[in-house]
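Notes from the 1:1 (GR / supervisor)

We went over the backlog. Supervisor wanted to see one worked example end to end before approving the batch request, so GR pasted a single chain during the call. The sequence is below; no edits were made to it. Supervisor asked that the structure be written out right there so they could see what the output format looks like.
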Amino acid sequence: MAFGITRVDVRKWKYDIDAGKIAFLTHYWLDDRFPTCKTVTKVGASDLNQLILWGKKYGLKPEWIHHRKDGYSHFDLLGDKQIEIMKLEGKEEHIWR
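Structure output shown during the call:
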């Protein structure tokens, strides 16, 4: 279950993806499969090749992409990897928000 984000946050994430950018959206998230994780960052792009290359920089495998028919395919970043990547990307506000 996702919470802690607004429709404006989601619209901006989609707008950035539509503009050809790598886009980041972090929100609170609870899932019994990941009991120690309380947040997730969705990193999306409209160009799958761009997203795959971005993910390779951080050791993310293409098969981990959540493929969506609506064009908002993304990686889900969790836990320590989420924090590591957000710091390397200069997106600390996503961690502290």
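Supervisor's comment: The CA atoms of residues 59 and 81 lie 10 Å apart.
Batch request approved.
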